[in-house]
Amino acid sequence: MRMYLLGGLAGLALVAVPGLAMAEDLKFSLINNSARAIKNFYTSPTTTTDWQEDVLGEDTIPPGQTDAITIADGSKQCVYDMRFVMEDGAEAIEKGIDLCKLAEYTLSDAK
């Protein structure tokens, strides 16, 4: 009987541990406070040098608008670099943003 109990506890541990290790989606509001529409928005964990897929896909974020953003890359990473490509081709890059602590991010025109 003791062997069955230990086997059952080990089985429960195997099921519970992966659930603890799973990454949660990162969600925040992206506010476009610039004078141009955001055409493309890329993110990348700071641990890599490659940009991920365009988060916006076919969408754009017009000036003065807000969009709900979800980063669901399966990573447990919190700190990301962000690259914005505007409708006129201008780019802005923000490095080292902690998305786990972020409820919203505002993109403004350069000063």
What does the secondary structure layout of this molecule look like, with pairings?
Blueprint: H1 2-21, E1 26-33, E2 38-45, E3 66-71, E4 79-86, E5 91-98, E6 104-108
Parallel strand pairs: 1-6
Antiparallel strand pairs: 1-3, 2-4, 4-5
**Strand fraction:** 35-45%
Helix coverage percent: 10-25%
Number of domains: 1
User: Ranges with pLDDT <50 over ≥5 residues?
Assistant: 12-21
Reported CATH architecture: Sandwich
In CATH's first tier, which class applies? Mainly Beta
Give the number of DSSP strands.
Answer: 6
Q: Gap between N and C termini, in Å? A: 72 Å
Strand order of the largest sheet: 3-1-6
What would you give as the CATH superfamily? Domain of unknown function DUF5300
Might you state the CATH topology name?
Immunoglobulin-like
Number of helices: 1
> Taking all residues together, what is the mean pLDDT?
84
Choose one word for the global shape.
globular
Can you summarize the main beta sheet? 3 strands, mixed
Report Rg.
20 Å
- By helix and strand content, what is the structural category? alpha+beta
Order of helices and strands: HEEEEEE
Give a written overview of the molecule.
There is one protein chain. With 111 residues, this protein is α+β, with helices and mostly antiparallel strands. The protein has one domain (23-108): Domain of unknown function DUF5300 (Immunoglobulin-like, Sandwich), CATH 2.60.40.2890. Helices cover 18% and strands 39% of the residues. The strands form two sheets. Strands 3-1-6 form a three-stranded mixed β-sheet, with no helix packed on it. A three-stranded antiparallel β-sheet has the order 2-4-5, with no helix packed on it. Strand 4 (79-86) and strand 5 form a beta hairpin. The longest helix has 20 residues, at 2-21.
